UniProtKB/TrEMBL annotation:
InterPro entries: PLipase_C/P1_nuclease_dom_sf (IPR008947), S1/P1nuclease (IPR003154)
GO MF entry, a single one: metal ion binding
SUPFAM superfamilies: Phospholipase C/P1 nuclease (SSF48537)
Annotated keywords: Disulfide bond, Endonuclease, Glycoprotein, Hydrolase, Metal-binding, Nuclease
Official protein name in the record: S1/P1 Nuclease
BP term (GO), one: DNA catabolic process
Organism: Cyclonatronum proteinivorum
One family name in Pfam for this protein: S1-P1_nuclease
């Protein structure tokens, strides 16, 4: 049973064909700091696509060509190990200790997800980028919004965003970061479209309320969930009980990041 936005969806007969099984295997491969896993980022991109203005959607097609917005959300993870983009490795996360705000925290000299996002947004708004530079900045921005909404990408500075917290997930070795970016989402066995359809049960008032603030506010929102995230059993064996108790947070953050991706794109390209 998948409880989403006060509605209940019962997935039935979700028997994936061979290609889906191969894709699921790939998605489950470890990646210690990728924000949402690929499926999570895909979901944020599909949510965003459904909330673009026609003019903004036309610009997205111009920028990305035949690549969908959903697929473009994972580009920043795909290139992070390439020499040309190694400098972006620290742009996926930010450290804000408990009781502090972003402005009070000690900042990484190589940049962080908040600082890099603000810089890339300014570059996009300048209108001075080449087509290639615009495409790269655009793909970084839509990815970083997702990262800021994955609560463990706003870390305390003590455990690498939960990567150092070794746990068992349904009897398999994992870590707390991976549980939040991938394991809980993948445990439902839903496709990106099925997940997005189930999540997009929102009223206009909620949508309007969530289209507020900026990256520093979104990072501070992620900090609110730390007590729930780190409420772990002594044996560190996590499964259905932990997922069902916390999945509303995953749902909310996926929705908020998707809506805010659309909001940012519409602000830059929608008028």
């Amino acid at each position: 049973m998948l409880a989403i936005c006060s509605r209940t969806v019962y997935p039935k007969n979700l028997m994936p064909h061979l290609l889906s099984a191969v894709l699921l295997f790939i998605l489950m491969l470890p990646d210690p700091a990728q924000g949402w896993g690929r499926t999570g980022h895909f979901i944020t991109g599909e949510i965003a696509q459904r909330h673009l203005t026609p003019e903004a959607a036309a610009h997205v097609e111009r920028i990305l060509g035949e690549t969908s917005l959903a697929v473009a959300t994972v580009w920043m993870d795909q290139v992070r190990s390439q020499d040309a983009f190694r400098h972006t490795a620290d742009w996926h996360w930010v450290t804000i200790p408990d009781g502090m705000r972003y402005e009070e925290a000690e900042h990484n000299p190589n940049g962080d997800v908040v600082e890099a996002f603000e810089r890339q947004i300014a570059a996009l708004k300048s209108g001075e980028l080449s087509p290639e530079e615009e495409r790269d900045a655009f793909r970084m921005v839509i990815h970083m919004i997702g990262d800021m909404h994955q609560p463990l990408h706003v870390g305390t500075g003590e455990d690498r965003g939960g990567n150092d917290v070794r746990v068992q997930w349904l009897g398999n070795r994992s870590n707390l970061h991976r549980v939040w970016d991938t394991d809980m989402i993948e445990s439902w066995g839903l496709t990106t479209t099925q997940f997005t359809d189930a999540l997009l049960i929102l009223d206009e008032e909620t949508i309007a309320a969530w289209k507020q603030g900026g990256p520093r506010d979104w990072a501070h929102e992620s900090m609110v969930y730390r007590s729930d995230i780190y409420d772990l059993p002594e044996n560190l064996e996590l499964g259905w009980e932990y997922r069902n108790r916390n999945f509303h947070i995953v749902e909310k953050r996926l929705l908020q990041s998707g809506l805010r991706i659309a909001m940012v794109i519409n602000e830059i390209y929608g008028s």
